[in-house]
Amino acid sequence: MDLALLYSGGKDSSLAALLLDRFYDVELVTAHFGVTDDWEHARRAAESLGFPFDTHELDRSVAEEAVETMRTDGYPRNGIQRVHEHALESVAERDVVAVADGSRRDDRVPSVSRAFAQSLEDRHDVDYLSPLAGFGRSAVDSLVAAELEVEVGPSEEIPKADYEGELRALLTDRHGEGTVAEVFPDHEQTYVRGPVE
Question: Is residue 132 a contact partner of residue 162, using CB atoms and an 8 Å limit?
Fold first, then answer.
């Protein structure tokens, strides 16, 4: 059974892939807007874990709308949520029986509501899976430490193929670097180097 997992090259989506691999033919899919080529490191992470990898181009107008929402709000939550839902919708149109992501139980954003998940499944005739939805950060960190080699650092220094990098680039182009600092809080990112040896 073919499953497309939204993939950033980070620890959460990598752990989700490992959990789903027993039951599905998992393909790691980095959804992007064509703003940057930050997804190349996700390809390397996927290859190091032994999973097939592909990219999926999204509607750039959704990114532009998200950037304006984030600037108006002064924080990224609603913009990133809109982009994540668009990515799930778009990837669900591929020839797969299921779509998945690496969202955890305690993630503030992105999150997928029960209503959105059911609507996605009904409209696209796919299953939506969130294998980390029952795991908190501590549990995820323990499992990751046992299975994956990761690099951790500030979000602006660690390569990662999530939406944030492209949204930061668009926000900078439209409103300057100062706006990016105002909208995005400092936080750490992870980049998967491969399985623990």
Answer: no
Residue 62: what residue type?
V
Determine how β-strand 98-100 pairs with β-strand 53-57: unpaired
Q: Rounded distance, CA 189 to CA 45, Å? A: 14
Nearest to 42 by CA among 165, 133, 140, 131: 165
Total count of residues recorded for the chain: 197
- The answer to whether residues 10 and 39 touch, using CB atoms and an 8 Å cutoff, is no
CATH architecture under which domain 2-195 falls: 3-Layer(aba) Sandwich (3.40)
Cβ atoms 56, 91 nearer than 8 A: yes
- In order, the DSSP letters of 80-97 are HHHHHHHHHHHHTTSS-S
d(CA 27, CA 10): 15
Domain boundaries, the chain: 2-195
- What's the average model confidence in pLDDT over 91-98? 96
Q: Shortest CA distance to 83 belongs to which of 6, 186, 160, 173?
A: 6
pLDDT tens-digit profile of 153-197?
766 665 566 788 889 889 999 998 888 888 888 777 777 888 988
Q: From CA 34, how far away is CA 27, in angstroms rounded? A: 20
Of 154, 144, 82, the C-alpha closest to 111 is 82
